[in-house]
Amino acid sequence: MAKIKKGDLVVVISGRDKGQQGRVLQVLIETQRVVVEGVQRVTKHTKVGQSQRGTTTGGIETIEAPIHISNVMLVDPETKKGTRVGYRTEQVERDGRTRNVRVRVAKRSGKDI
């Protein structure tokens, strides 16, 4: 199970974009990779074509490539630095029943994520 989810703010801890922060756009579970906004940008050559309106598409585009999930770290909401992720179970009462809910916790500050 990945500890990083779509929409999380992460910091890159290794690679050519080390130190950059960005939001997670996509989590690829089967390959253990994440796509982070503004990080690991690569140029992609796409075939020139036409859309239905008649505008030309294609050419050279710059897109974000996936990076391994071990190369990013979640940003602590309090200290704005990288932190490890832990879990805490809480009993929540909904509709007259108690349920155990797992809550993600920042190891650096102890705050909920």
Task: Give structural attributes.
six-stranded antiparallel β-sheet; mainly beta; SH3 type barrels; 10 strands; 113 residues
**CATH-derived topology of the largest domain:** SH3 type barrels
Helix content: under 10%
CATH class of the largest domain: Mainly Beta
Write down the overall mean pLDDT.
91
* Strand order in the largest sheet: 6-3-2-1-7-8
Radius of gyration: 19 Å
Number of strands: 10
Q: Beta-strand percentage?
A: over 45%
Main β-sheet, in a few words?
6 strands, antiparallel
Shape-level CATH architecture of the largest domain: Roll
Determine the N-to-C terminus distance.
17 Å
**Class by SSE composition:** mainly beta
SSE succession: EEEEEEEEEE
Overall tally of domains: 2
The low-pLDDT segments are none
Backbone shape = elongated
Count of helical segments?
0
Detail the topology: elements first, then pairings:
Elements (H helix, E strand, L loop, with lengths): L8 E4 L8 E8 L4 E4 L4 E10 L5 E9 L2 E2 L3 E4 L6 E2 L1 E10 L2 E10 L7
Antiparallel strand pairs: 1-2, 1-7, 2-3, 3-6, 4-5, 7-8, 9-10
How is this structure best described in words?
The protein is mainly beta. The chain has two domains: 1-49 and 58-75, SH3 type barrels (Roll), CATH 2.30.30.30; 78-113, no CATH class. The protein has no helices and ten strands. The strands form three sheets. The chain has a six-stranded antiparallel β-sheet with strand order 6-3-2-1-7-8, with no helix packed on it. The chain has a two-stranded antiparallel sheet with strand order 4-5. The radius of gyration is 19 Å and the shape is elongated.
